[in-house]
Amino acid sequence: MGTSVESLESILEKNLPADELNQVWNILYGENHPKGNGIPVEAQEIADGHNFELKVHSFNAALEQLRPPRRVKVGLFQHAHPVPTTAPVLDQLNALHKLAERAIAAAALTGVNVFCFQETWNMPFAFCTREKLPWVEFAQSAENGPTTKFLKELARRHKMVIISPILERDQFDVFWNTAVVIESNGEVLGKTRKNHIPRVGDFNESTYYMESTLGHPVFDTSFGKIAINICYGRHIPLNWAAFGLNGAEIVFNPSATVGALSEPLWSIEARNAAIANSYFSCAINRVGTEVFPNPFTSGDGGEPHKDFGHFYGSSYVAAPNGSRSPGLTRVRNGLLVVDLDLNLCRQVKDKWNFQMNMRLPLYADLFTRASKPNFKKQIVGRGLSEDQSEKDLTNGN
Amino acid sequence: MGTSVESLESILEKNLPADELNQVWNILYGENHPKGNGIPVEAQEIADGHNFELKVHSFNAALEQLRPPRRVKVGLFQHAHPVPTTAPVLDQLNALHKLAERAIAAAALTGVNVFCFQETWNMPFAFCTREKLPWVEFAQSAENGPTTKFLKELARRHKMVIISPILERDQFDVFWNTAVVIESNGEVLGKTRKNHIPRVGDFNESTYYMESTLGHPVFDTSFGKIAINICYGRHIPLNWAAFGLNGAEIVFNPSATVGALSEPLWSIEARNAAIANSYFSCAINRVGTEVFPNPFTSGDGGEPHKDFGHFYGSSYVAAPNGSRSPGLTRVRNGLLVVDLDLNLCRQVKDKWNFQMNMRLPLYADLFTRASKPNFKKQIVGRGLSEDQSEKDLTNGN
């Protein structure tokens, strides 16, 4: 579909009468899907002036007797690379910082408490090229790099937690796909790294960095317990479950993924994680098409080319009760602000009891056995092996 | 929404121009969503004559050099309870068998290889009542009960694998929520039982039966390796993963679930399982509203009543590539026939590599530790416990 379709929401809003539109939202996004909220004039002016979409929505939870509501506003920012990838690295980085400053200013005016960028937000997503230069020049220290320093100041100024997914160069010159968590006082609270690395299509990331060795940390910030599941990790339900076991209330999924590959998966995976683990999930995708200086091939027999398709945005927030927000567009920069009540997490746990009924020891045992070379599948019936059950077309048959 | 909305599909088809309708399907159901196929006249006549919807769709896979296509037609049947729940048990059972015979006849005419009913298909879903009588009279031997005998004959006649989810009474008079797998030669291949039992809303199933002790069997049938994840088990991603590890190519999810509770979860969970585990998933839900003889309460402070809401049907099939079929209606009996190629499972595994990149030993270790009482969550930051992080409103504060 490329850029020809702005969004699912825009098609439906244009064509459906109000009552049927509401029925469709009830089915697609849940009867408790968040309602649109007012947007401060000044925030809207920034968005209009710099051509990004600004949406504000709100989820509700029940009032409790012993806990006051714990309302948090999350801000998800999706953006296209603002300058050509052929520009000097410093020019690209400066343009991205300028873009970020505006988005964070609009977020602050909207009252955002926790702001998150897309995956490796401060560079083009150059891993399709398999080139190391100049792209690794974007890699930085998570604790002291220029992007972290820049964001620490903004976090402190706006009293906002900022999650900054970057390409990290550590003290041993090892690269990692990392998310830095900056507290609302401007201090770096910690970092987490991508747990699962894709080897699919143009996502040659295993050429650049390895799987995280940092586990599944949950960051106990001034605005709730948050975790970050970076990009391809959203395909692995066990990964989402691990963040839940460690107590996450909001899990951000900063991503960079293109339409031809993953669009039918996008609306499903982060939302399923919110349901299965009784937390909020925030899925953020890059937007636009990035063109690189040199042609590269995609391992699919096709001609060399300079881009790897359209990042389709469509960022959204899903709630533990299965409802979700509308998405940002497929084609433009956008800031999605969602006001939520963390109390909903435990309320859903107390209702559905997935955590009580999940039989963790049963799966711990199975997964331990399945991790060993002598694992025998539990198969009833003809007992044919997978190879035998398929017709053997080789000569040795 | 109750019964006021027939289906998402019907609203969209009524209102959207063809090109925009196609764009919406591409976003919602994937660019490779299955296309409608021809329906044999005789099958359509049975459906029309007995007032059930009949839909036929087809998924494609790529041609391979060494494996021929392995095409299988699955049939999913959703139905309302055909007679009042006040009728004698035998009358209810006979009416259900008659209904089943017609559905299986239509399925046979459409070429179905593997047919599956909804959860405890041969009885009303009476677990809302908390009454044992007369409902446990519907319980039967999985191997030799009247329903199994009835279906063995149909399976043999039509050379069809039939999955029959029933309430089982075993040799020790223990009840189980069981699915019987009958091979296409009419023999019982085996059975599986519900792994996760709900304690939510009117689903008082833990009053009637316990969690399965049979593991996660995969049945190697004449039409591929299939497994059955019964109802509430669809909320547990680890459960779906276990069937995948044991080699399932199609996992059926016979269910009974009502709109007010689970509708925003329905379209997400089975489809996510298909994506995460690179197999086909078949989600089947009961349809209609069942009224019981005696009033019961729902543990929600409400007045006693005789039904627990509308089962919303909406059965569908999802593919490992993330695409899915349209759903059956929310309001009527229906048979969904989907023609699929099992080769797609391994093709998707070879493309996305989730099975290679899932780091099973990491999660085996984490889940083992989390199963033990001294587990310490991996929390970075203030290190406050969950209780401390919430404002304490008690006097002891």
From TrEMBL, chains A, B:
Top-level taxon of the source organism: Eukaryota
PROSITE patterns the UniProt entry points to: CN_HYDROLASE
Pathway(s) annotated for this protein in UniProt: Amino-acid biosynthesis; beta-alanine biosynthesis
Residue span, CN hydrolase domain: 72-342
GO MF annotations in UniProt: beta-ureidopropionase activity
Catalytic activity: 3-(carbamoylamino)-2-methylpropanoate + H2O + 2 H(+) = (R)-3-amino-2-methylpropanoate + NH4(+) + CO2; 3-(carbamoylamino)propanoate + H2O + 2 H(+) = beta-alanine + NH4(+) + CO2
Keyword Hydrolase belongs to the record: yes
GO biological process: beta-alanine biosynthetic process via 3-ureidopropionate
InterPro entries: Aliph_Amidase/BUP, C-N_Hydrolase
Entry EC number(s): 3.5.1.6
Protein keywords: Hydrolase
Family recorded in the similarity comment: Belongs to the carbon-nitrogen hydrolase superfamily. BUP family.
Name by which UniProt lists this protein: Beta-ureidopropionase
